[in-house]
Design a protein that fits this description.
Layout lengths: L19 E4 L5 E8 L4 H9 L8 E10 L1 H16 L5 E3 L3 H9 L9
Parallel strand pairs: 2-3, 3-4
Antiparallel strand pairs: 1-2
Helix pairs in contact: 1-2
Length: 113
């Protein structure tokens, strides 16, 4: 009897103290989940840098649970990476706290709708 093999989970950057950036199964977008703060910004950025950029240039941020200014720094670093690669990158569905911080720092343009 041949049992169907389960579909592999989408690739994910290793958890960095609770934050994960993972690629959608088709590679079109990333999904960000967990806290993104000073406590884990460095490892979270390093883990995200290990992923190929999303082909549709979208990072879904609704799953980001807690933020501080380090979250904005991580998003800006990822945006610079995409710019250097000649690829668009938009952060969508940002939680209100992240949107407010981006607005305070004058970089709310990186957040899509």
């Amino acid at each position: 009897m041949n049992a169907a093999r389960p579909t592999a989970a989408p690739p994910a950057a290793p958890r960095a103290n609770g934050t994960v950036f993972r690629s959608a199964e088709d590679g079109s977008r990333w999904v960000a989940e967990g806290a993104l703060t000073f406590a884990n910004a460095g490892p979270a950025l390093a883990a995200a840098q290990a992923l190929p950029l999303p082909s549709a240039g979208v990072v879904a941020c609704a799953g980001i649970a807690a933020v501080d200014s380090a979250a904005v720094a991580v998003l800006l670093a990822l945006r610079r990476r995409a710019d250097e690669a000649g690829t668009a990158l938009a952060f969508v569905d940002a939680p209100p706290a992240l949107a407010k911080l981006a607005d305070i720092y004058g970089v709310d343009g990186i957040l899509g709708t």
